[in-house]
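Lecture 7 notes: from sequence to structure.

We start with a single chain of 304 residues. Read the sequence below before looking at the structure.
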Amino acid sequence: MSFDTPIALAGPLRKPRQMLGDQEYGGHASIHDDAMAEKLGFRAGPIEGPTHFSLFPPLLAKIWGRAWYETGCISSHYLNMVVEGEEVRAFAEIPADGATSTRVWAQKADGTPVLEASASIGADAGPTLLETRMAGLRPPGKLLILEDLSVGMTGAKDERVRMDADQNMGALYPFSLTQKLAAITETSPWYADAKASPWGRAIIPLEMLSVLFEYSSREAAFPVKGPAVGLFADQQIRLIDGPLFVGEEYVLRREIAALAESKRTESYWVRTRVFDATGQKQVAEMLLNHATLKHSYAGYADAV
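Now the structure, written as tokens:
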């Protein structure tokens, strides 16, 4: 007898750590600061969305093996915030033999959804969750915070970045990879021991790719008005020629991929293309929807 019932892998419940309480951008505290979060109507500073990405590699490597680390893609829409002390579990549907994409999600211990996502390997897996979402965006109305942005606008210059094991990742990410590995929900010797890694070098964990790709984001100099507080609403990380390595230099090039608006936010989607140190071979890409809270911008209601 055969069934078409979807079967899913499930990870253990984990308590992710909040490591962005001291984050600064635009000269002020971020939404991850408890006081700022409470001021904006949230009960505490949320844990950054990509922190939850660490829950998925054990499941996706079980499905696709080494290919996940070399050409894997996670495409996530964030649904509900998580604060320190809450437990989160990841799930991944087991795809049919030979399939290169599947559905994944994370939820709190009480069943509250945290994120929904697609996961895939290779270049021919079909549209991702965020590619589908972005294709369905309606043109925004009049923008205020983002009125000086336009789709296709590129960053001011090429950005050169690297992540050494003990390198503090700056005001946006005031910790090092070593400090993150002491707190990460799912660890692997591949993240710190070159000899243990199949590639002969320590690899950067999936959640820390977001840190690497955002590390120099100020250098893009996109003309976003402020001060205003934002958060990640959607995020996709795709490896093209992975994994990415600790201590390796990379070149980043950014462009505005889309602009959008909701009742509470103005959003700009940034596509960051990641190249090797020569700037010639693309090795990864990130699509990130920055949702800027309208009511965090002084005088917003009076200006529109």
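Helices lie at 34-39, 57-64, 66-71, 129-135, 177-181, 206-214, 300-303. Keep this in mind for problem set 3.
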